[in-house]
Amino acid sequence: MSRVVLFNKPYGVLSQFTDRGNADSPRATLSDFIDLPGVYPAGRLDRDSEGLLVLTDDGRLQARIAAPKFAKPKTYLVQVEGRPDTPQLDALRRGVVLKDGPTRPAQAEAIAPPDLWPRDPPIRLRKTVPDSWLRLTITEGRNRQVRRMVAHVGLPCLRLVRWSVGEWSVEGLEPGAWRVL
After folding, report:
1. At what angle do helices 145-152 and 86-94 cross, to 10 degrees?
2. In terms of C-beta density within 10 A (0-12 exposed, 13-18 middle, 19 or more buried), how is residue 52 classed?
3. Whole-structure pTM over 0.85, yes or no?
4. What pLDDT shows up at residue 167?
5. Lesser CB count within 10 Å: N end or C end of the chain?
6. Which top EC class applies here (predicted)?
7. Which residues make Cβ contacts (< 8 Å) with residue 65, sequence separation at least 6?
8. Is the bond into 121 cis (omega within 30 degrees of 0)?
9. Residues 62-86: b if buried by 16+ CB within 10 A, e if exposed
10. What is the pLDDT of residue 87?
11. Beta carbons within 10 angstroms of residue 7's beta carbon
């Protein structure tokens, strides 16, 4: 039977078990939180993002979760600079054209600020520029895709939290916590 691990990845943590970066300045990795041998991330979540990272010991399941051809929905809570208007949300819903090609259509809606854990370090807010939150669901997972999509429509990303992957959610998991299903 496959093992599936849900992990609430904190901001600043790499989505890998080792850091092949600068040895003089090691960065936090999955091994700082998860001591379960034989599981590997199904997809990635960039260092500047937080939230759900699914790990498994099943290579086929890993591919079904991460590969764009399986169109597994991934939902993000995105704090952006500015207030989204209907044309910006409609552009996200239709899909936008990024440097690496068009994105698939997304589900996009403005939402009230969610009740999330505080980010460490906190985001930098500007007093003269409002911020707001979006819920964005995509079915692909290109490098920094959500950040690039919202920036493309004029809403720079301040904070990005992956809330769910398919039927799995980060709900009830504190940052740095994990559980085996």
Report:
1. 140
2. buried
3. yes
4. 93
5. N
6. isomerase
7. 42, 43, 54, 56, 72, 165, 166
8. yes
9. beebbeeeeebebbbbbbbbbebee
10. 98
11. 26
Q: State residue 159 phi and psi, 5-degree precision.
A: -150, 140
Q: Look at residue 101 and give its three-state secondary structure.
A: strand
How far CA 56 is from CA of 5, 23, 110, in Å, comes to 6, 28, 32
Specify whether 24 is catalytic.
Answer: no
- Percent of the chain having pLDDT more than 90? 76
Q: What sign does the dihedral 116-117-118-119 (CA atoms) show? A: negative
Distance, in Å, from the CA atom of 68 to the CA atom of 62, rounded to the nearest integer, reads 12
DSSP-derived pairing of the beta strands 178-180 and 40-41: unpaired
> Which domains, ranges and CATH numbers included, belong to the chain?
4-180 (3.30.70.1560)
CA–CA separation, 143 vs 122, rounded Å?
23
Residue reference for tokens 């991460």? 66
